[in-house]
Amino acid sequence: LCALSKTFKLGGGMLHKPQTLKAVNEVSLRVPRGQVMGLVGESGCGKSTLAKMLLGLTPPSSGDVLINGKAIVNANQKALARHIQPIFQDPYSSLNPRQRIAQIVGLPLRIHALGTPREQAAKVDQMLDLVGLPKRAAQQYPGQMSGGQRQRVAIARALIMRPDLVICDEPTSALDVSIQAQILNLLLDLKDEFGLTYLFISHDLAVVEHLADRLAVMYLGQIVEEGTREQIFTSPRHPYTQALLASALTPEPGLGVPDIGLGAGQPDPTQPPSGCAFHPRCPIAQPQCSEQTPKLSAITHASGQAFGKGSQARVACHLA
Ligand code: SF4
Ligand code: MG
């Protein structure tokens, strides 16, 4: 992703001035092939808007999406879908209740006119088998299945095109805890088997720690820290990352939005604070922080060598 931005215009009318919301603000991020990039941050930080741009569901205000070095943002949604496929949070609403599973899973092949109907049916059977569903599932409707089974259907549909990138947007947060680990392990097995690349969006750091190779931390539409899983979990450098990790370790994590324990909540995103947008909540803010916006820059970790090659980290903080 190259300087990808999405600005929404809100409201306006007789009494109110229209406001602009920079949901995603110049995000540049490289997801290495064959790896899992975790994207974390509180709800409303822009994670899902970012995903929607990658899926062609909402056009970016500016910036590019590149796959293998080629920009594809101006391609239509159909072209984008050849490269990028989603697995959404809610398998109840993301599957058409009036279609049989065979139709649902085979849809991408029909849209892109890949193979004969017979070949498509064989591919569907193969995918259902790979995601651990019985053959008879092909003739069922989503309403006849459990949440976990439905998410397996969504995974089969996403992978049938062998996409370059799979966007997993909170893929287990609507499932029972007992099912979550099964689905996460299935995603990992399939990734290894097919060399898949995931952008894994989650507010749940425990889930991300389990599967991400790298992590990007988002705050108010911007990436504030990026690095390998080890760097982020063992020596986070941005105060926001540190607070997120600390809140994930408290015995009673809040439901949904993590309570990051930094006094004031997330600021109104239509009126982001000046300078470093995190400064009103930052426990170590300095006077310069409200004036100068820190750039996301490469840093060397004190224990740099230990993290190995290709482990470059980036942080947006004056004091990091
Ligand atoms: Fe805190 Fe300043 Fe760093 Fe922002 S730039 S995270 S306010 S220390
Ligand atoms: Mg979301």
UniProtKB/TrEMBL annotation:
Q: Does the keyword Transport apply?
A: yes
Please provide the record's keywords in A-Z order.
ATP-binding, Nucleotide-binding, Transport
Going by the entry's taxonomy, the superkingdom of the source organism is recorded as Bacteria
Instruction: Please give the biological process terms from Gene Ontology that the record holds.
Output: peptide transport; transmembrane transport
Q: Which InterPro entries match?
A: AAA+_ATPase, ABC_transp_ATP-bind, ABC_transporter-like_ATP-bd, ABC_transporter-like_CS, Oligopep_ABC_C, P-loop_NTPase
What GO molecular-function term can you cite, just one?
ATP hydrolysis activity
One Pfam family this chain carries? ABC_tran
Every copy of the ABC transporter domain together lies at 1-245
What protein family is recorded? Belongs to the ABC transporter superfamily.
Q: What is this protein called?
A: Oligopeptide transport ATP-binding protein OppF
**Lineage of the source organism?**
Bacteria, Pseudomonadati, Pseudomonadota, Gammaproteobacteria, Oceanospirillales
